[in-house]
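Protocol check, entry for the methods section draft. Step 1: assemble the input record (protein sequence plus ligand SMILES). Step 2: submit for complex structure prediction. Step 3: store the structure tokens unaltered in the notebook. Ligand used here: S-adenosylmethionine. Step 1 record:
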Amino acid sequence: MNKTVDNWIEVDGRKFLTDIGVRPGQTVLDFGCGEGHYTIPASKLVGRDGKVYALDKDSDILDKLKDRITESRIENVELINESSRIPLEENSVDVVLCYDVIHFMKIDERKLVYDEICRVLKDDGFFSIYPKHHKNNYPLMELANVKLRDIVKEIENSGFVLDRKFTGKLLHDDYYDEGFVLNFKKGE
Ligand SMILES: C[S@@+](CC[C@H](N)C(=O)[O-])C[C@H]1O[C@@H](n2cnc3c(N)ncnc32)[C@H](O)[C@@H]1O
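Step 3, stored output:
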């Protein structure tokens, strides 16, 4: 790991997740967890009474994360190798993170994922998304022509309401990026 990633994992990531509302004892799903740049700070923050499910479709990346959590003796993370489907009970998760992931998905797959997230999220939980790579922010892949306001509409069409926006310094890949995440809660 480089120093930036170390600093994020040890200090800034935990602070960021606290700022957006993650609390000790909670159950968090990190959807599209990658190498765990948000999974590991979340696991430290939720602590022994909490749990983090780290889900990714890429088994190689999950192997890397497995090595990292074993080395760090982290015991509250469960890895899930799955694409788009979430093999968890309904109403079982306090927080879902989906950071820098949705540009990989076509619109139908995004809808499936938002519906799945809504299903597993508790009624008083929240869904936090880092919508990188849309039309106005380094456009890429399936989001290259999608505006931010259309992403918000897609998510709201799956039963969510936009609640808050958090702007600040985020880790993107292995560097700091000024950006924002959007927190959604479940609609009535
Ligand atoms: C750019 S990485 C972001 C990793 C991490 N969330 C972060 O911010 O550091 C995107 C990850 O999403 C995963 N991914 C993309 N589409 C997915 C899907 N439909 N189901 C599960 N994982 C997916 C990819 O395999 C990749 O590891």
